Amino acid sequence: MSGKPKLHYFNGRGRMESIRWLLAAAGVEFEECFLETKDDLTKLQKDGSLLFQQVPMVEIDGMKMVQSRAISNYIATKYNLYGKDLKERALIDMYVEAVIDLNELLMTHTFQPADKKEQHFATIVDKATNRYFPVYEKVLKDHGQDFLVGNRLSRADVQLLETLLMAEECKPDILVKFPLLQSFKARISNIPTIKKFLQPGSQRKPPLQEKDVPKLMKIFH
Amino acid sequence: MSGKPRLTYCNGRGRMEPVRWLLAAAGVEFEEIFLETREQYEKLIKDGVLMFQQVPLVEIDGMKMVQTRAILSYIAGKYNLYGKDLKERALIDMYVEGITDLMQMILMFPFSPPEAKEKNLDSIKERATNRYFPVFEKVLKQHGQDFLVGNKFSWADVQLIEAILAVEEKIPAVLSGFPQLQVI
């Protein structure tokens, strides 16, 4: 039995990916248990392992944690990625929550019906380039530091990087008007733990393909 | 100029209601600005007051805070409603997030098209009575304490009571299988 956190989810990004990023950034090794069929999910539910009968679920420090934000909050605090005081945490929370909003848009793109896809794509690009990215560009410009909050790596940096990369997968030149975000991306990607996570063969998951959607629906619906 | 937190939102529950509950539970007086017209909202955006061009906005301790969860976490942390250590916080977070999922269904309910309303109400009832309330009933039964976490009043208790009352408004008999929750 190892002391490593154990992640229960399907073999894809979804709501578990941000947690994988945080653990990786913190240099924490983790194991994964993939749900492949509905039976796998049902078994976990019947075991009483899932507080609200849902995944993600992470076994960590003797707890079976559910709810992705609760899990991320715990990991971020434990590994000192959550600022030094209440006010830094408030800033980090504001930045992270907005990133999560943008992530939701990006994640749901693959599930859009064909006739809505183009409009959804336009919404993603509009929100990313007009609502969210300008804020982070300005934050970096105003304080001139390498990290978003407190001149130190925090979960806000990790989660922003995750989202920037996902946005680029959606539209490769999406950062063209944001020079500071581009250099932020390069800089944070170079942090050794994160650099390792970005290598092929890591536990980072690829984007969901349309062909995988039916299998996913079978597990969860 | 007062030192009280100032809330900006429309004059209704929406995403601000949990913030009002939490401040009230902490005994903190607050002021409210209600958005009545689109012009007011657009002015706020133009003034650069809304970080992501959205409300809720809460002006507190020199910050213009946005994003409901960020606001709630700050208030809970400041007024000692967030447990005594990391593990208690983890429990509180799990409970709050679960309840928030249920509250989201209630929040969206008025916006359902008429033909979907009955089905959505059934979903709320189903989730409340099969997924969420049983968890909290069990938690209270197992430790026999008055509060969900750490034998002390916390954000989780506030969120739960808000949710119970909100669901009861829609489904009056919803607590009939949950003696522990009735006592709350």
Automatic annotation (TrEMBL), chain A:
InterPro entries: Glutathione-S-Trfase_C-like (IPR010987), Glutathione-S-Trfase_C_sf (IPR036282), Glutathione_S-Trfase (IPR040079), Glutathione_S-Trfase_N (IPR004045), GST_alpha (IPR003080), GST_C (IPR004046), GST_superfamily (IPR050213), Thioredoxin-like_sf (IPR036249). The keyword S-adenosyl-L-methionine does not apply. GO terms for biological process: glutathione metabolic process; xenobiotic metabolic process. Gene3D superfamilies: 1.20.1050.10, Glutaredoxin. SUPFAM superfamilies: GST C-terminal domain-like (SSF47616), Thioredoxin-like (SSF52833). Keywords: Transferase. Residues 85-208 form the GST C-terminal domain. GO terms for molecular function: glutathione transferase activity. Its EC number is 2.5.1.18. Pfam families: GST_C_3, GST_N. Signal peptide: none annotated. It comes from the Eukaryota. Residues 3-83 form the GST N-terminal domain. PANTHER family: GLUTATHIONE S-TRANSFERASE, GLUTATHIONE S-TRANSFERASE A1. Belongs to the GST superfamily. Alpha family. This is glutathione transferase. The gene is Gsta1.
TrEMBL record, chain B:
SUPFAM superfamilies: GST C-terminal domain-like, Thioredoxin-like. Gene3D superfamilies: 1.20.1050.10, Glutaredoxin (3.40.30.10). Keywords: Transferase. GO terms for molecular function: glutathione transferase activity. InterPro entries: Glutathione-S-Trfase_C-like (IPR010987), Glutathione-S-Trfase_C_sf (IPR036282), Glutathione_S-Trfase (IPR040079), Glutathione_S-Trfase_N (IPR004045), GST_alpha (IPR003080), GST_C (IPR004046), GST_superfamily (IPR050213), Thioredoxin-like_sf (IPR036249). Its EC number is 2.5.1.18. It catalyses: RX + glutathione = an S-substituted glutathione + a halide anion + H(+). Residues 3-83 form the GST N-terminal domain. PROSITE patterns: GST_CTER, GST_NTER. Pfam families: GST_C, GST_N. It comes from the Eukaryota. Residues 85-184 form the GST C-terminal domain. It is an enzyme of class 2 (transferase). One of its GO terms (biological process) is glutathione metabolic process. The keyword Protease does not apply. The keyword Membrane does not apply. Belongs to the GST superfamily. Alpha family. This is Glutathione S-transferase. It comes from Haliaeetus albicilla. The gene is Gsta3_1.
